[in-house]
Amino acid sequence: MITDFKHTTEKLKQQIDEIGRAIVREREVITNWKVYNGDIETGEAPDLDDSTWDSLTSWDEVDVPSWQRISVKIPDQYEGNPVILSLRVGGYDHKLFNAEALAYVDGVLALGLDAYHHEILLTENAVGGQEYLVALNLFWKPDFNKTVWQPNPRGDYPDLEKITEIQLIDRSLERFYWDAKTAFEVAMSLDENNLQRSQIIGALL
């Protein structure tokens, strides 16, 4: 019975992971960032003239401190759905790290950006064609000439491919995923011979 359950739990974990990946129903990469290498006051202001800023060609080449800005337009097919902005700007020659920055939407602070926090909710009910001004004030990135990478004792670091995109989210699937993931993790924390472990896994099947 335990052997069968080991095979079952491995398959169940794979299925839950697949559900997690399906939460994002559609995605669109955004690449037309502008960059100002250096610091300025009110770099997040919607009325700031950034017409003389450079086009960002690589997240690896931005300085610290620096500002990045972009106008994000909601695709018409996202109408009526939750939309988030995913800001995986990478770790500069190391995919296990994300730069750290303050992220603003339409001039309002929305998120402190790091490896574990890189998604901003733009809207729960998207309007096709609506635009949002996103600004990043980047203040830290790892310098691997000085910093030695160490394994994370709490578990794996997130895999952060350098990509920024807007994503259409399936909230119903998202809720189901987190319920299933939490229940599965609770079950796996119990002893293999624990009856509740078998009951939880059975309910997830």
List the total number of helices.
3
Query: What structural class is derived from the secondary structure elements?
Result: alpha+beta
Strand order, largest beta sheet: 3-2-4-9-6-7
**Distance between the ends:** 15 Å
> Could you give the count of β-strands?
10
Q: Your description of this structure?
A:
The protein is of the alpha+beta class and 205 residues long. The protein is 23% helix and 29% strand. The chain has 3 helices and 10 strands; from the N terminus they run αββββββββββαα. It has helices at 2-21, 171-188, 195-204; strands at 24-29, 34-37, 54-55, 66-73, 83-88, 100-105, 108-113, 119-123, 131-140, 163-169. Strands 3-2-4-9-6-7 form a 6-stranded antiparallel beta sheet, with no helix packed on it. It has a 4-stranded antiparallel beta sheet with strand order 1-10-5-8, with no helix packed on it. Helix 2 packs antiparallel against helix 3 (195-204). The two termini are 15 Å apart. Mean pLDDT is 84; it is low at 91-96.
In short:
The protein is of the alpha+beta class. It is built from three helices and ten strands.
Q: Keywords for this structure?
A:
205 residues; 4-stranded antiparallel beta sheet; 23% helix; elongated
